[in-house]
Amino acid sequence: MADLTVIILTKNEEKNIRKCLSSVKKVAQRIVVVDSFSTDNTKKICMENSVEFYENHFVDYATQFNWAIDNTNINTTWIMRLDADEEITNKLELEIINNLDKKNNSLVNGIEINMRVYFMGKWLKKGGLYPFKLLRIFRNGYGHVEKKKMDEHIVINEGEIISFNGDFIHKDFKNLDNWIIKHNWYANREVMEFHNIDKYRQNQNVIKENLNGPQSSRKRWIKNNIYYKLPLFYRSILYFIYRYVLKLGFLDGKEGLIYHFLQAFWYRFLVDAKIYECEKTGVVYGEQGDLKL
After folding, report:
1. How far apart are CA 84 and CA 123, in angstroms?
2. DSSP for 177-198?
3. Composition of the chain by helix, strand, coil, percent to 5
């Protein structure tokens, strides 16, 4: 067991939370769940698994996670962010147990991990989805989640960032109805981000766009300086072609087709439609609150 606290944010995650908790129970000294007042059996399942359970009103993921850092008395050397629909692999479990504490006296303050995306039960290996590294473990006192409405990442104040070889799995057991409702909610938040790009660029506490930087910085540069410069609506078509054809998403079969059509085309087209609606009607999106599912 490593000198590690795992923080998990939840809202109505009874279908996912049990496997998430099971995957980290041998790894972490503490498991902290911060729930935004679930109405299903999420709390009951967490209590049955003897985790530390907190409730806090949801504003956005960044605010909720940073609240967890500041208000749950974390005294372990390391903190890990894990979503309720995620779990760690056996390989990553062993890597954390065998190697994390060895970094205690080093200059390493952040650790990136590869994410595996599962959709409809299938691991999607193409379409630019794998390998995809995310910074998910960081030294206590040296990291926070950047203050953004969407696509928020962990920011390290100083020190080195290394990578572990093991993967964590994103595998949501909820159905397509839930996926569509969630992504409509995401689209509203993304429109808010689009209308505030300049503000985020000036914020010193967010990851900066950098074509020569780490993966998250490169993707943000490409999105803000290339994708958003392309014509409204047509860019979602081009993005789908890029993901499904050029990045070989079609090799993942029917699941790959459904995922890339919905995520790379439908979702991006929906964001553009909402941007167009705002420009045409003068509507300004306000705070979205938590996801109503």
Report:
1. 18
2. HHHHHHHHHHHHHHHHHHTTHH
3. 45, 25, 35
Q: Go through 189-211 and write b for each residue having 16 or more CB atoms within 10 A of its CB, e for each that does not.
A: bbbbbbeeeeebeeeeebbebee
- For the residues 209-236, what does the mean pLDDT come to? 89
Of 22, 39, 40, nearest in space to 31 by CA: 22
The pairs formed by 53-56 with CB atoms below 8 angstroms and a separation of 24 or more are none
Burial 217-233 (b: 16+ CB within 10 A, else e): bebbbeebeeeeeeeee
Q: How far apart are CA 60 and CA 48, in angstroms?
A: 27
pLDDT per position as a tens digit, 12-60? 999 999 999 999 999 999 999 999 999 999 999 999 999 999 999 999 9
Q: Specify whether the CB–CB gap between 173 and 15 falls below 8 A.
A: yes
Locus of tokens 């397509």? 176
In sequence order, the 6+-apart residues with CB closer than 8 A to the CB of 145 are 61, 62, 65, 66, 81, 152, 153, 154, 155
SS3 145: strand
Helix (H, G, I), strand (E, B) or coil at 159: coil
Q: Which tens digits make up the pLDDT trace of 59-91?
A: 999 999 999 999 999 999 999 999 999 999 999
As a whole number of angstroms, the distance between CA 175 and CA 4 comes to 32
Decide: 78 and 137 in contact? Cβ < 8 Å.
yes
Tell me the two tokens of residue 123: 């691991």
Maximum C-alpha span of the chain: 57
287 or 155: which leads in pLDDT: 155
